[in-house]
User: What shape does this take?
Amino acid sequence: MGDVLGPGYRWSLFHLAWMCLLSSMPQGGAKVLEKTFEEWMRYRDECLRRMASEPYPAGLFCNRTFDMYACWPDGSPGITVNVSCPFYLPWFEKVKHGLVSRRCGADGQWVTVNGSQPWRDYSQCEEETAATVEEEGAHRLMVSFKVLYTVGYSLSLLTLVSALLVLTVFRKLHCTRNYIHANLFASFGLRATSVMVKDALLERRWGMELVRVADWEALLSHEAALGCRAAQVLMQYCILANHYWFLVEAVYLYKLLIGAVFSEKNYYRLYLYLGWGTPVVFVVPWVAAKYLKENVECWALNENMAYWWIIRIPILLASLINLLIFMRILKVILAKLRANQKGYADYKLRTSVLAAGGFPLFSFRLAKATLTLIPLFGIHEVVFIFATDEQTTGILRYIKVFFTLFLNSFQGFLVAVLYCFANKEVKSEMKKKWQLWKLDHPALCCAQ
Assistant: This one.
């Protein structure tokens, strides 16, 4: 028997793949499909061995066959042959008592549809309609989430690149504060890029045309997964780097507020090590653990949570430190604002906060100061910090996924706007450059 999939066979496998992908969340769908195909190959091999070992009956009969869906014994003419639902179906436990049927024609040939596709009744082997509708609804919801975060990351990337250009081109903006902002913007940009690259590789991988059984084997091979694994590693590194540049921002602002005396040049080098170097310390052992212990698919599914905590613990640590610094800074700001209400001017706070973000929070309400610092420190991460995808189920999982994807994808846009384009120093410098450009090009400005 050749391994070329005819139209009917190809439809069966495509239907199976689609149902597998619908039956789980995005990170687990590929794993479900991989396991299902491995079970299908075992079912096929057992069927072929059984067909080769059993003796043939005498007289006219429909020949034993494997039609890529079920294993069929020899059939008597004019009789409907029933076999159990194949055990490789992901929902087999629900339909294990069901039967799939084929009809043997009076001429000793299996009945076909349109002269080529095999006729069979597998209605008892299908998932329940209610469950299928629920899974399709979940699939549509996840597709909507993907559109949401793709728009968010695209908008953030465009804004972040523009902000980086502004901080790079205008020399008067070159200082430690803006260097730290630029690195934070770069970490956001790399994170957005890595997510979109990973999605593109996965879409290309699972969108390829599958004509032969060998195509499925190649699709699910380790070699074919190298690209998406590399993208997964890059994404984990960028996420860690993003969190540790949050931490750098928090440490820098806190040092300004408490009036610490230090050499900015020396500390900036340490900031670089903390922001870009620390993630390597955790990503390398995570890659080693995945390669040695969970070297399956694109490394997106966490079967052993111990390996996932290699990445999760440093994120939790950075987020908790940020939260503590955030609360300490709010306490200092609250004390200064109360002193200001009593008529005491505090130029040190004005200078510190202006240096950190360009906003005169000195005269603002505490609530506005809080809302301004939240995106800079990534405090929103604390809300679902202990609720991993594997630990949340049902509606809570969808709520977590929505807020996580929305906040993470649009956060780069918000940070770039707040700490670059809405910064008074940046706006002033851009206005000066615009005035100088108009003076240098009077013909263009006055053409209208």
Q: What stands out?
A: Residues 95 and 125 are 6 Å apart (CA to CA). The longest strand covers residues 80-84.
